[in-house]
Amino acid sequence: MAGTWIEVDLDAIIGNYHEVIKRLRPGARCMAVVKADAYGLGAIEVARALERDGCEAFAVTRVEEGLILREHGIKGLILVLGPTSQEEWPGAIAAQLQLTLSELSSIAELNEVCAEKEQHLPQQVQVHLKLETGMGRTGFQFSEMEVLAVALAKAPHLQVVGVYTHFARAAQRDRNYTSGQYERFTTLTAQLEELGIRPTWKHVCNSAAFLDYPEWHHDFVRIGTLLIGHYPGPGFREKLTLSDPWVAKSQIVHLREVPKGTNVGYQSIYRTKAITQLAVLPVGYADGFGLAPHFMPQGWIDFLKIVFKNLAALFGIYLGQEQVELNGRRVRVAGKIGMQLTVIEVGMQECALGDEVRIPLRRTGANPRIPRQYKQAGQMVSERIMKEGVLAAYTECSLQGET
Ligand SMILES: *Cc1c(COP(=O)(O)O)cnc(C)c1O
Q1: Whose CA is nearest to atom 3 of ligand 1?
Q2: Fewest beta carbons within 10 Å, which of 15, 19, 27, 83?
């Protein structure tokens, strides 16, 4: 089958997990953040591999993500980080997901849902309190502590197992801001304790804070980025030995020799400068190829770079044009990336229909429809295929020698 697919090396993820856990403070555990389909790698496979390796806790943003993990056999703690809605609660409670509380009004309502006998739900739901300390997103604030304590005292079906906050600038290594957030967290939790709320666990660290502030590991660190083999920012390089589990590949589906001066693609922004070969790949921006998040320039140098790049483009010089790798050599994308097709200029190097090409595809931007193939010890162990946005097939491959 010609096409585009993604290979995920589960051994690399496990290796990254070990790099994390061997640096944990005594008493701290790693909560693997597998939100957004494990940053595009595939939440089920990643969570399964980690759980087999001893990981006991997972985090996702939404209830449906947690339910999918439970349905696929994940036994460990699953924390839902994002806000949840009433319709989702019975399902979440039945599946024993842990929920994040960040809003006063939900406390009595959630308690009510647990109390309803007809639903045959577990009588307790485990919750984590989210505190707002500087992210400006969700969480209880200073002024709400007393009302929060009163509301919780009237909600016997809620078991407060955790309290946490999330750092906004840890990846930028903004020590002032991050320490400020941590201080507010400490003040807020102390106040809660005075009011009689003593959650079992505290957790504050994401990947960046885990690296920079070992003294803040507490009971859990919530790690996503490091597990998928990335550093949270440029300043962290070489701190751990990480490996990238992700390779996106496509295949040449059309190949043609063309003369000098051939226009390529929409708006003919690309024109060949000599006799050459053009190859077509079945991948485009509908698959997430060529899509990058919009970054605000970080300072003057960055701003000038952006201006320069755009000026050069006016004169037909494409700086930072996407490149792919064919037989170990870098090859340029010719012209605009299409919806589902992309042309590359391969020059006169020898190549053929069906040749594999490695493509730079952002993990979180890659369309879930692209099949994921999972490898362990160099062998393919399973494959995931989505159709119409839902899981169509999970094929567990038999290892060589077995049938
Ligand atoms: C995404 C997320 C994390 C993980 O952050 P990384 O930097 O990817 O490790 C931790 N905590 C919360 C609340 C998150 O949303």
Answers
A1: 206
A2: 27
267 CA distance to ligand 1 centroid (A)? 41
- Ligand 1 binding site (Cβ under 6 Å of any ligand atom): 33, 35, 81, 166, 206-208, 222-225, 232
C-alpha 360 to ligand 1 mean position (Å): 23
Residue 153 predicted with pLDDT over 60: yes
Give me ligand 1 centre to Cα 34, in Å: 9
Sheet containing 246-251: order of strands:
254-258, 276-281, 342-345, 329-333, 323-326, 356-359, 246-251, 4-9, 372-376, 379-387, 390-396
pLDDT in tens, 157-186: 999 999 999 999 999 999 999 999 999 999
Decide: 214 and 324 in contact? Cβ < 8 Å: no
pTM of the model: 0.91
**What percentage of the chain has pLDDT greater than the value 70?**
94
Multiple choice CATH, 24-239, 3.55.50.30, 3.40.50.720, 3.40.50.360, 3.20.20.10: 3.20.20.10
- The fold adopted by the segment(s) 247-359 is Lyase, Ornithine Decarboxylase; Chain A, domain 1 (2.40.37)
